[in-house]
Write a structure and sequence with these properties.
The complex is a heterodimer. By secondary structure, chain A is of the alpha/beta class. Chain A has helices at about 40-45, 70-85, 100-110, 140-145, 155-170, 180-195, 230-240, 255, 260-270; strands spanning about 5-10, 15-20, 25-30, 50-55, 90-95, 115-120, 215-220, 245. In chain A, strands 1-2-4-3-5-6-7-8 form an eight-stranded mixed beta sheet, sandwiched between helices. In chain A, helix 1 (about 40-45) links the parallel strand 3 and strand 4 (about 50-55). In chain A, helix 1 (about 40-45) packs parallel to helix 9 (about 260-270), helix 2 (about 70-85) crosses helix 3 and helix 4 (about 140-145) runs antiparallel to helix 5. In chain A, about 50% of the residues are buried. The mean pLDDT of chain A is about 95. Chain B is α/β, with parallel strands linked by helices. Chain B has twelve helices and eleven strands. Chain B starts with a strand and ends in a 15-residue tail after the last helix. The chains are: A alpha/beta, B alpha/beta. At the A-B interface, helix 6 of A face helix 9 of B.
Amino acid sequence: MGAMTTTTVATQAGGVQLRRGGSGEPLVYLHSAGGEGEGLALLDRLAERFDVVAPMFPGFGESEGIEQIDDMEDAVFHLLDLFEQLDLVSPAVLGMSLGGWMGIELATRYPERVSKLVVVNPAGLYIEGAEIKDLFGRSPAEMAEDLFADQSHPMAQMMHQVSVSMSQAGGSALAIPFDLLKPQLQTMAATARLAWDPYLHNPKLRKRLHRITAPTLVIRGKEDTLIPAAHAQAYAREIPGAKLVEMPNAAHLIAVERPDELAELVIDFLSS
Amino acid sequence: MRFFSFHLMPYPALPDDYDGPAWVTCPNDLFDPKVGNEVYNRYLDELVYAEELGFDGVCVNEHHQNAYGLMPSPNLMASILARQTKRVKIAVVGNALPLYDPPTRVAEEFAMIDNISNGRLIAGFVVGGGPEYYSFSINPAHAREKFQEAHDIIIKAWTEPGPQEYIGKHYRLRFLNTWPRPVQQPHPEVWIPGVGSLETMEFVARHHYAYMGIPYFHIDVFDRSFRLFREACEREGYTYEPKQAGWLIPIYVAETDEEARRQYEDHFWYFVKRLLPGINIQPPGYTSLRSMENIMKGANTFAISLDNWKQAEEGFYAVVGSPKTVLEKLEQNLSRLGTGNLLGLFQLGTLPADLTRRNLELFANEVMPKLRERFPDGKAMLETAGAVA
């Protein structure tokens, strides 16, 4: 299909790699800590109905300026800068995991800048007894189990493969060829800046959720073992009027594993 | 040439059926305080003994929540050594600066040790190992920035009159005014250990500090690291001096080569296979991509992937043998690396007290004097002319 074209947008932090395509109301896509975007079928599907705007966050893909971003507050200000550059007054926002958290942070601080909000397996909360599993120290194989419902998905297969090479080299990630490792190192380093401590949450976020005015849909993959169900449930309960949908046969990385079903849910919600 | 006895203070009693990492998540119910009481005292005795045997200094270091090294606070060890020794340098290699908040604490404690020992402290500063960023939940993406700021605070505290102010990104100190100040002026000698990160080498070269190569890699990796360090000094406009470089290496001396291997090998493997696993975890953002690429050039030679003694011996992961063999091997490598400080690990893994003492004695009596003759202070050490680019 290839509805998306890639450009670079100048922001305060630096050049941001932007995928954009389709026509209709603007829909901003905020990717997860995996930095998905390139060749993502989900974006093509959404572009059939919307003007899809998918920036890579600084530190991901070709986007610059991560050294200027220390925490989620900086991330939100970066999004505002980007919105100004693109004349986005109040777009719909769709965020995956880390990107979902970012969308929620934006919508609590500047409710008027988000017309509708869809978050998929969003991070951002700490819930005692339902902690988010470790993202920074586990093997790719362990991660694949949490990210994918079906371990035969090509990306899950690749992650299992990498783990095999690592264990053959005494458990070291250094066993992976640098070219393959480099993008992974970059995205994890960028994620660490936002989410190492506090780990994938903002202690102040929960008491601010009541400020969100956008109609909100929370989507959870039923088989997501990275972020427990209590997180999506808390968001759905505490964001005024939010709706919760649980997707069967879906785990954490729904955007990659179930693009068609996800696109359908998003289109239905945003068109209603 | 200066000789140091370096102790890691390992936990020697991991149960045989435990095969997990020795770091971060190694369950602390495996720690037996009875063993702790015994080994802390024994290990301190081994360091004190090094003074008696004529070493120039002793070294301790900092690691947290692991079985590899039982010194979360090397400053406690150094303060005991400051009282129990009279002559040797006491090198704390080092304090992991981003783990101290505010880093004023390091300026204070190091100055205390320097006062108690009357100017015998060598002040080591480290970024901290990868596992420490998990163990202390400190953001690895801020590791280098915090290290820089903490370093600046400590040097400022030692060298500029207080009270003064330091306002940085990570630390804000409105009244920086360290009591005590160090005996050594303008400040104690500074050592920085490294595993091959270019940023670290450039930092050390810029400040005219000393670079300590961290072990457990093939000798070629050290060779490359020290060459890169010498090049970094050249870029700063000067030629490095041997005292600015140190080689940290496990050493074991016995009467004969056969006896040395027989007595040492099992203890070496306990160290490599039981205590190293987990040390090489790389938290995200801890190392720049540029440095990561450089470190990775040596990564496949990390000791964890050794399978047999021949590899360990040929790669100089440890120097083991009769006094004659150890002397030859050290001479050969010292003239290749050009390091004016030899930091020997004379106790490793489960090596017991009697063998450790015998090792220290044989080294001090039969190897050290000959190396002193071979590498006199203030003389160039590198054998190959033009080794400095």
